[in-house]
Design brief:
Helices cover 27% and strands 26% of the residues. By secondary structure, it is an alpha+beta fold. The two termini are 34 Å apart. Pfam families: FAA_hydrolase (PF01557).
Length: 383
């Protein structure tokens, strides 16, 4: 679950020991409760030196992993590692994902039509899209040529144009963590996971760390109309993050994010298996540029997280030849990279996923009841 070099990593996350969400720091093999100094992950990320936050040692990392392995999916011990941060996502940041969005659009969400369209689109514009720098003069010339050839798409606009696609993925506090069930709409028939690296930024837009994310996508809904993006992306349990945030320090920087290799494994209940990979070195826009665009004329007083997009687009047939991949209830999805660990979730429908009940009001009430906010709560973090 944890990074291969966990003993050298500075990690931050949330656990529930039965009283409510508790921010923790993991360093030197020990798990520390820092809730008195940082009652929320927002406080923790805003702190200039999270490693200095003090608190009692709860247990070691082996016990952390053991408790996570035993957790009840309906009442998880290991929670999503964010709370009050806004959940943003950047789309169409890899050439392959741009082509797949064009294919969805032209197929009108019909998976059966995708294979033929994919072959035609790839042969005509695949190489050019991969080679061009977004927002450059060469990109503008390619756009003009594609328009003349009746090949232009709204997805290509955000893939090679000056403005990245940045959208709000999920409401505050709605994300699920490692081991939880992740949801797809029950009325979707063409969908897939989107394994991504997620940047965690503070209120000033400074990247403070990274984690793994599953930006679950409904290809049939978005393919029918880009105006259905909200319904394709934002549903119960449709956004998973974890297992923990790896905070940037001398041993882990944005350069490590830019070179990360993301692996995906899906094991289906019927014995089906799919493997894929996403290489951050092939991203069209640097992560720092995506963070900058997310901050452009937009404030985030509690900070934000930003999904960086995915290279992965599953086209391997699962049942019917030519229809490609779609999830089934019971799929186990594992997203991993050595220095961030493994995010594992089981697929269910958004209708059957455990209900989301802990919103902002419930969190505030819980923190106040535990004495973590109020006249004497969180003073160190606020200072």
């Amino acid at each position: 679950m944890l990074p291969v070099d966990a003993s050298a990593a500075l990690l931050a996350g949330r656990i529930d020991l039965g009283e409510g969400p508790t921010p923790v720091i993991v360093a030197g093999g020990q798990v520390r409760d820092v809730s008195r100094a940082a009652p929320t992950m927002c406080h923790l990320i805003e702190h200039p030196d999270p490693a200095s936050l003090d608190g009692p040692v709860l247990f070691d990392v082996a016990e952390l992993a053991a408790r996570a392995a035993r957790q009840d999916r309906a009442r998880p011990f290991l929670l999503s590692p964010i709370d009050l941060q806004v959940v943003k996502a950047s789309g169409v940041t890899f050439a392959l994902s741009a082509l797949e969005r064009v294919i969805e659009e032209r197929a009108r969400g019909d998976a059966a039509a995708a294979a033929e369209i994919r072959e035609r689109i790839e042969s005509r514009i695949g190489g050019e899209i991969r080679a061009v720098v977004p927002g450059s003069e060469a990109a503008a010339r390619l756009k003009a040529a594609l328009i003349d050839g009746d090949l232009w798409s709204q997805y290509l606009e955000v893939a090679i144009g000056p403005d990245a696609e940045i959208f709000t993925k999920a409401p505050v506090l709605s994300t699920v963590g490692w081991g939880a069930e992740v949801g797809v709409r029950s009325d979707s028939h063409w969908n897939n996971p989107e394994p991504e690296v997620v940047i965690v930024a503070d209120s000033a837009g400074r990247p403070r760390g990274a984690t793994l994310g599953n930006d679950v996508n409904l290809r049939d809904f978005e393919g029918r109309s880009a105006l259905l993006l909200g319904k394709a992306k934002d549903n119960n349990a449709s956004c998973a993050l974890g297992p923990m945030i790896r905070l940037f320090d001398a041993g882990f920087t944005m350069a490590d994010v830019e070179q990360a290799e993301i692996a995906l494994e899906i094991d289906g209940p019927e014995g089906y298996r799919l493997e894929g990979a996403s290489s951050m070195s092939q991203i069209s826009r640097p992560p720092a540029e995506l963070v900058r665009q997310a901050m452009s004329e937009h404030d985030y007083p509690d900070g934000f997280v930003l999904f960086l997009g995915t290279l992965f687009a599953p086209v391997q047939d699962r049942d019917t030849p030519g229809r490609g991949f779609t999830h089934k209830v019971g799929d186990v999805v594992r997203i991993s990279t050595p220095r961030l660990g493994v995010l594992e979730n089981r697929v269910t429908t958004s209708k059957d996923a455990p209900p989301w009940t802990t919103g902002i009001r419930a969190l505030v009430d819980n923190l106040a009841k535990r004495g973590l906010i109020g006249a004497n709560g969180g003073q160190e973090a606020q200072a």
